[in-house]
Amino acid sequence: MPRIHIQNKADDLESKITPELWQALGGPEGASFAEDEAGFRAGIADAAYLITATSALRPYRALIPGQLRGIFCTSAGMDSIAPFDWLPQGTMLMNNSGVHADRGGEYVAMALLMLRQEMPAMIAAQQRGVWEKHYTSVLRGCTLVSIGTGALGAAGARAARLFGMKTIGVRTKAEPHPDFDRVVAAADLDSVLPLAEFLLLAAPLTPQSQNILDARRIALLPKGAGVINIGRGALIAQDALCDALDAGALGGAVLDVFSPEPIPPGHRLWTTRHLVITPHVSADDPAIYASDSVKLFLENLAAIERGETPPNLVDISKGY
Amino acid sequence: MPRIHIQNKADDLESKITPELWQALGGPEGASFAEDEAGFRAGIADAAYLITATSALRPYRALIPGQLRGIFCTSAGMDSIAPFDWLPQGTMLMNNSGVHADRGGEYVAMALLMLRQEMPAMIAAQQRGVWEKHYTSVLRGCTLVSIGTGALGAAGARAARLFGMKTIGVRTKAEPHPDFDRVVAAADLDSVLPLAEFLLLAAPLTPQSQNILDARRIALLPKGAGVINIGRGALIAQDALCDALDAGALGGAVLDVFSPEPIPPGHRLWTTRHLVITPHVSADDPAIYASDSVKLFLENLAAIERGETPPNLVDISKGY
Fold first, then answer.
1. What is the pLDDT of residues A278-292, one digit of tens each?
2. Second-level CATH architecture of A101-277
3. B114, B130, B287: residue with CB nearest A137
4. Which residue of B has its CA nearest to A277?
5. What residues 223-282 of chain B have any CB closer than 8 A to a CB of chain A?
6. What is the pTM for the complete model shown?
7. How far apart are CA A204 and CA A82, in angstroms?
8. Is B116 within 8 Å of chain A by CB?
9. Rounded distance between C-alpha atoms, residue A8 and residue A17, angstroms
């Protein structure tokens, strides 16, 4: 079996891949585990595969040896290690797409319900100590537009369907997708924004998707629309979104990702009107994260050994 | 057809039954509509049925004439017009049970998701302007105990099942219920509280259910449990709940009903730790409230005219 090096994040108590977990899940023997640079250098020297988070890989990109057959990143988004000029030719890059779906779906369900029930306004009223009724209706029949139809966007659409919502997906090409009533190409995004009572951002961050929700497109949303972001902060022109929220043009937003992270003390985001902030936790389930990541790596490894393309191979020309 | 008087609340803009709505839904001709006492006295004099909210009925209880065949209250809980010594013998009292189920179910879904994802702590962190991660898992496999298995409790259980939760119902007698995996009698409540990762209060308020969740029973809940109340505030020993929340014994609470309402300015509820307050709006859907209430009344009227017991008849010996 090929030798595998596992580089954990030193400060990661939630999703560390331990030797015990590795063995319990049937990981190949001879694996090495490290959390610092010396351990990385020693472990990577004769490894065939590397398993690591993008944040742990980022400082060591220049140290990736040409013999490495593959890198499995325990993250969904590859934007923090792009561009990929450091990646040796012939080394496959794989992501962790799929591990976040169940948890991310429940986050989207919560965000849709909170926005529909005007919780941002009621949370603000509670903070002021004011009894202020907001009578609201159900989600049934409302429309969710998701920018991104990958594992997270699809999980969000399934969450919306639990409550009888209509779902529209926006992806590179307008190929049908079973979790969406309708799919439009990214080039036609503007045509569906006026339908988006709720807009979900669940796309990878690339040069094409950066600021995809800008001031002009925010203005295309229906008055009172709700915005949910579980992708990357830079998908949104953040100041324009804060302006629209503060002006009351949007009903509210539930955001898990920001530019920058962590949000600095005193940043306007902390006090933006009808904004619910969660600190980049929407899709990481500590109960299953490490084990599901290992299982997904082993599925990809098995595919490679059978001579197939691993299902989580990143297309570095696209960035996801 | 029998003549019907409809007494609306003067300040009710959300769920008023208008002559236009009444006609559109096929309500019998000759109905009278009023919002003040003079209109009540005039309309009730020769009416066979009265449709009104409990809050609008409360001041006029002594004016109910003996010829009235039935009162249909557009409210689910009858506690504010109990005891029923003012009700003429032979006058049927009916409630609005069922109209709140869809909206109430979405409220419970939101509350379960918010509590599981530790939103009360994250809302507090946002208020302090602090980036404080809370990694949490999904609802699947968690247990909801519902005190009350009526229309609202059952809707809460169905919401829990959407996310793969286990459901235990607590009702007067341990009769099976399709929305609950298991039902126990109220006398056995203590035996299931240690299983209640989430506890829903959705029972009518009666002398038996008042303070049903008291300090002793709060202490039987698992550490970190979440409490949801969509019934009546007085079901809970409110100060004991606030104490448990402030002490960190419970994970959080999402409450829609309180004693008293509105919560007065400066009340400790406003600043209780990990408490989410909504101002008694969890189950009133303005999009359908008035029309569904009329439809439900007409169903009950048709049953009466067929010589059957109307489905929403209140058992005044029980109070619901």
1. 999 999 999 999 999
2. 3-Layer(aba) Sandwich (3.40)
3. B287
4. B126
5. 261-263, 265-267, 270-271, 276-281
6. 0.95
7. 12
8. yes
9. 7
